[in-house]
Amino acid sequence: MKHMNSEVKEERTSNKKRIDLFLVPIVLIAAFLNLFKIWTDEYANAYYTAAVKSMLQSFHNFFYASFDPGGYVTIDKPPLVFWIQTISAKIFGFHGWSVILPQALAGIGSVLLLYVLVKRTFGVWAGRFAALAMALTPIVPAVSRTNNIDSMLVFTLLVATWMLFRAVRTAKFGWVLAAFAMIGVAFNMKMLQAYMVLPAFYVFYVVATKITWKKKIAFLTTATALMLAVSVSWAVVVDSTSADKRPYMGSSQTNSVLELAFGYNGINRLTGNTSVTGSSHKQPAQTQQQTASSETKQNSNSSADSSQSSNQRKSSSSQKMQASGGGNQNGMFNTGNPGPFRLFQKGLSDQISWLLPFVIFSIVGLFAGVKFKGSYTTKQKESLFWLAWLLPVAVFFSIAGFFHQYYLIMLAPPIAAFAGAGAVALWSMYKQRNGWKSWLLPGGILTTAALQVYIMSPYVSSIGVAPIAGVGALGVILALVLAVRKQRKNLLTNYLGAAAMVVLLAMPAYWAMTPIIYGGNSMLPAAGPDSSSGMGGPPSTATNSKQSGFNGMQPPGSSSGNSSSNNQMQPPSGSSNGGQMQMPGGSSNNGQMQPPSGSSNSGQMQMPGGLSNNSQMPNSSSSKSSSLKRKSGGMNAEVNQKLLNYLTKNNTGEKYLFATTDSTSAAPYIIKTGKPVMAMGGFSGSDPILTVSKLKAMIKKGEVKYFYLSGMGKGGQSDVITWIKENSKEIPSSKWQSTSSSAQQGPSGNGTLYEITLK
């Protein structure tokens, strides 16, 4: 009891101390990286932003996280983060920056929490360096500058970690319950991804608490039960509600939250089974693309722009870009190929792995001399916690069949913690000339610099040779000088050690700023000189080092006026795939994407929903636009005003402004007008929500009259779409299509507008 009281008193005394002045610039750096220019992202991730717009309109939409104001279908994630975003939009007004703000603040909060967690045990300098490493990990600000969930998820898990550490220090069971309940809260942000930290929580509590095994088992069992109850609380309420009284659960096949949680958003991430029908990830890319979730579809949109371009240069006749469904050398969606060294492959290494060699050396130093039997120090126990977080997550990303680059933010806390704790520990061993351990510091510096040169080498065309050579040369020189000066203790040696840390953080700092410098992508956050494309891969994968992203997209019915095929991607045309990648709707590309039959757009790629592509990086001739407001993470997602005017004028009381195959076509109109737009097949267009009989009933009730079909995203809706075409009147394109090449930009490209009226 005396020990417990002394711990509490010590913490209270520590909290009353003056603010750490060294922490202030670190927090300011994090604030700059997370907040600066978020106001330029007008739509952010349009899929989620449309949901916030809908959730602002009624409590029914708010509770279920409805994608559309009509309550037809939900988004494909739990609602908690979007509740927070909606509250932010309610307070500050509906803007792109107001839905991004909670995640940006969470990114800053994670930096502060890591400082607190590391400082208490490993010392103030360890806390400072850990906080700085967290702030400068490139994927952290890249994700935090968007309305995606992961930044808030990591912050919540760090709050749970703080609670767990406090539970061990104070020996209070209530804090154990709170820590595991917080993981349950995180589950309601991104489902099973929150459980990736559970090995660390279990191992640490078992090792660190000085209570009987009987109590450990009882406490952990109770805490786990509470975590599970909190986790499924919203899911049980939703799944218990009659289907006709709530929206369809988006991206599920059985209209169930639990199926979504433990299937597609759970185990299927590991197996790579991205098909909602349960078929293998190895099946033809058509099915994969048809059935992808919001993140999959967004990624396919972005990755198609650049990941196959290295082969284009070999084709002097057309340079049409190939689609990257997953068979290219960089693996699916530029996440590398599964294997033990996957985190060191391009596409992933530049997002998270800059300090991994130093972390490995730090782990060796921190665990040197540890005996399996015997008591452990507090430092060793907490090092074990971070190791039990790092290893399972690293293994998952090394073998997983399907994930996106920005998921790697889950690795940022343990890497940053080991970087901070290890820097202090290795420096102490070095200064004390502690045998072989004294070589860990120069060895860590040398190998880390070598990896950073490797990471940067594919980007030589965009960042130049100087920074790559500089990091390599300085890393080698400083490591060698420190090795030579091991026997000397003077001020110069201290300066050399500090200089080495600066060198190792220099390029991660630059990479962390790339979303500000080059523009970010709110749909597929990734850092790097091509960050606006959402690819996070080297510029060598683009047609040239300045081409990437998706600017100049076509709105519904607008004609591009550009017949050139050079450097353009073209959408599917509708035949069998012949083993080639297909976009939603199913069509053959034979290595290249072709325009849909009947399309007036010859030479620009039509993305799902009809997005056209005419892309350039901000450092190209279109760089002036980087200072303007971006729509949907680099995608210009405004509506076609002529189409909107026609639909509004001819609406005779129908609930839905119009219906379309998928959410990409619907989102901009929801954001612009706040009116219901029906995404018949959910996000990817493949959810089995609608049947012909249901659609007939809706039309007879006067709920929907107009249908915009772009030939993309059919998925499992083929019967419905066929019936629409056979029983509708085609609206002449002159009444709603924009023919100007300078028309407002937005999704849904060249398609056909139909009207159905049943008596």
Protein model, in words:
- By secondary structure, this protein is mainly α.
- It has helices spanning 2-15, 23-35, 46-55, 59-64, 80-92, 96-122, 124-136, 139-144, 150-170, 173-190, 198-208, 213-240, 257-271, 285-290, 294-303, 349-352, 356-367, 378-399, 412-431, 440-456, 460-463, 466-484, 491-517, 641-649, 663-673, 692-700, 718-726, and strands spanning 605-606, 612-613, 659-660, 678-679, 706-709, 729-730, 752-755.
- The strands form two sheets. Strands 4-3-5-7-6 form a five-stranded mixed sheet, with helices on both faces. A two-stranded antiparallel sheet has the order 1-2.
- α3 crosses α25 (663-673) and α5 packs across α6 (96-122).
- The protein is globular and about 90 Å long.
- The termini are far apart.
| Secondary-structure content class | mainly alpha
Order the strands across the largest sheet as they lie in space: 4-3-5-7-6
- How many helices does DSSP assign? 27
**Mean pLDDT figure:** 79
What is the CA–CA distance across the termini? 79 Å
Shape: globular
Low-pLDDT segments, ≥5 res: 1-8, 276-329, 539-628, 632-636, 741-748
Fraction of residues in H or I helices: 40-55%
Q: Roughly how many Å is the radius of gyration? A: 27 Å
> What fraction strand?
under 5%
Largest sheet: 5 strands, mixed
Q: How many beta-strand runs?
A: 7
